[in-house]
Design a protein that fits this description.
mainly alpha, two-stranded antiparallel ribbon
């Protein structure tokens, strides 16, 4: 988890760390030991690469699961 990006702050104060494709191999390399470089990867993802849309509040419970949770809902 990391601090929420500017785009996600109205939704929640934290967000999962999302690694850019170019960083994935380094993150998964068990031999790479540069802690400062690894810490630098734990940053909010570039919000220009993200899209947000309203979904059902059912996503707030782990008891709910299914593709319908990703459907855009009308808030107007």
């Amino acid at each position: 988890m990391t601090d929420a990006s500017e785009r996600l702050q109205p939704i929640h104060h934290r967000m999962p760390v999302i690694l850019a494709p170019a960083l994935r191999d380094r993150w998964l390399d068990s031999g790479f030991r540069d802690i400062e470089v690894l810490r630098g990867m734990l940053a909010p993802y570039d919000t220009t690469q993200m899209e947000t849309f309203p979904v059902s509040k059912q996503v707030n419970s782990p008891a709910n699961d299914g593709p319908e949770l990703l459907e855009v809902i009308d808030t107007g």
